Input
Amino acid sequence: MYSPSDFRRGLRILVDDQPYYVVEFQHFKMGRGKANIRTKLKHIKTGAVVEKVFSSNDTFKPPDMESKKMQYLYENAGEMTFMDSQTFEQVSVPVESLGDARWYILENEEYKVLFLDNEAISIDLPASVILEVVETEPAARGDTVTNVTKPAKLNTGLTVKVPPFVKEGDKVKVDTRTGDYLERAN
Output
């Protein structure tokens, strides 16, 4: 059971027997009343976004979801195909249901694929991934004193802001929750 104090981005909960995940949340308190939590929730299956206000006393159950470790194979016609390494069963997940997670998925890597009612709906990503820079501008001389950044296109198609010393061919660590550059990787 979850309470509103457990809310964080991506937390999966049941609201009115429907599976949602938390997109945004904000605690607020009016005068002498009890604290409330204003949330923006996204339906796991349909993708519909709703805004709800909960009391600090409300409780929520987690949805009955199953996760399997699967290997990402390829993308075809708007669907990403994953394979179970033990049974060799293949499952396709629509790209639009993955959202921004699609920019952090690398071929032949293993991920936890989430199933709801025996249907693949999403994946669990690690906190950070290492991606390769395939396109970026050369560093301008004299830009080392201030906190200057430049855009860099990565091997998955994602564009992030990186420091001037990063060049094409470098590997960089990217935060999958925010999409920010963390550090240069070896």
In short: Residues 65-124 form a domain with the OB fold (Dihydrolipoamide Acetyltransferase, E2P) fold (CATH 2.40.50.140). The longest strand covers residues 18-29. Residues 95-98 form the longest helix (4 residues).
